[in-house]
Design goal:
The protein has 71 residues and is mainly β. The protein has no helices and seven strands. The chain is elongated and about 40 Å long.
Length: 71
């Protein structure tokens, strides 16, 4: 499965399956009843635009899945 990421240095969008879930605290329910996944997603290969290994909050991801054909 591929996720969609945005390079924080260049602002360019890319897709990759080279990531891992880190610091997964599961789904948390807020006082208003809203739910969100509290986890971090870390690249396991360098960003194709800047060469860094970025880490993102789950809520920062542009899309939870890559192309439909990859599902």
């Amino acid at each position: 499965m591929k996720f969609v990421f945005v390079c924080p240095k260049s602002g360019q969008v890319f897709e990759t399956g080279a990531f891992c879930i880190a610091e997964n605290r599961g789904v948390v329910t807020g006082t208003d009843g809203s739910r969100k996944l509290e986890a971090k997603v870390r690249l396991t290969s360098p960003c194709p635009f800047c060469g860094k290994h970025h880490e993102y909050e789950a809520a920062e991801l542009s899309c939870p899945f890559g192309k439909e054909s990859d599902l």
